Amino acid sequence: MALPTPQPSQPRNFFERLLYEVRQEFQGRKRPQPVPPKAPLVQISHQPHFEILPLGSRSGDIDGNLSAYMVRALPLNEAILCDAGTLGGGLKFCEAAGALADIPLPHTPANRAESDAPLSVAGRVLTETIRAYCISHAHLDHVAGLVLTSPDDVPKPIYMLPPTQELISAHLFNNQIWGNMGDKGPAPQIGKYHYQAMETGTGLGVPGTGFTLQAWPLAHANLTSTAFELRHSGHSVLYLGDTAPDQPDSPGALHALWEAVAPRIKNGTLSTILIETTYPNTQPADKLRSHLTPQLLLATLHDLAAVCGGRHALRGLTVIITHVKETFAALPENPQKAIQRELEEGNNMGIRFIMAQQATRYLV
Fold it and tell me: What PANTHER family does the record tag this protein with (predicted)?
């Protein structure tokens, strides 16, 4: 004897009828796909030549957001990373924020065997987009990410001045703190990274890219820091690592740098500078630790303006502020807001000041 076909239960009251109708209405429909996140975008130039993406933008006591600036030539899949305090974690943060979505990664990943597991977008940017590193100095907030991410990286050059190379060889990639990932220093040398020593002001091309790099020394604490100019297709960006101010009435490393780059600022091919301002003006002078404040930055920018021909010579120049000190202290004003306010109050040169933010894209 055949059993009767079960019938769907019918709604017995108003609320059950309403629920029944809603279910019928949406039955079989596909759930809407989540909208991917869209990272903040600041378009500074109407015809941008570079995208600057901070993988990390701060200094101080809190890791996960330390100095690392990816400079990508538009619209290409080639970039240089200036410092690497935060690297792997910064790339993953940027991927989650949608900041890597516009990078034109090729359909077929490079440097991968068929048996390898597929990489995330962050992993592909690490291994395919970032073609070289420019390391300004060996302080941990500028190199920790490079060290920690190195096992998953691919061979590429590290550009640095000889004093920085010596410190990294002796104290980081030394087979004690970490395996020697470089091609110089203590044996055994894994050789993943080629240490490319630079000479002051001498341009070097980055293999496989259109980038040319120049470096100049900066004074910082008891070591040498570095400023790098990254040039591609006739345009350039200037990145400064940590720096002390020049002494009053005594031209120093910053003045020498300004004299070197002034011709390109005057002809408009260098229109963006990334420079540190670690503390607001309230920081006592004996606790600056060889860093800049807004007052000190404005003073050296006035020196740059004088080298370029006068106060109005920097009108329209973009200065991206890096390395603001993060702290556990409960301060009366957010340090970034305080620094931006103090810069704007003293800005009589027509400079555009921008506070660098992690995972924000700057088109310059």
Answer: 3',5'-CYCLIC-NUCLEOTIDE PHOSPHODIESTERASE 1 (PTHR28283:SF1)
Per-residue model confidence (pLDDT) at position 331: 85
Instruction: Give Cα 361 to chain centroid, integer Å.
Output: 10
- CA distances in angstroms from 75 to 71, 150, 208, 211, 268, listed in the order given: 12, 27, 16, 14, 20
Retrieve residue 227's tokens: 């400023």
Distance (Å, whole) CA 305 – CA 46: 24
The residue type of 46 is H
Nearest one of 242, 251, 315, 307 to 279, comparing CA atoms: 242
CATH number for region 37-363? 3.60.15.10
Residue 219: what are its φ and ψ, rounded to 5°? Answer: -90, 130
Helices (H), 150-280: 162-171, 253-266
| Per-residue pLDDT reduced to its tens digit, 122-165 | 999 999 999 999 999 999 999 999 999 999 999 999 999 999 99
Per-residue pLDDT of 271-316, as tens digits, reads 999 999 999 999 999 999 999 999 999 999 999 999 999 989 999 9
> What predicted TM-score, i.e. pTM, was given to this entire model?
0.89
Break the chain down into helix, strand, coil percent, rounded to 5. Answer: 30, 25, 45
Residue 110 neighbours by CB under 8 Å, 6+ apart: 127, 128
Residue of 192, 242, 234, 183 lying closest to 212 (CA atoms): 234
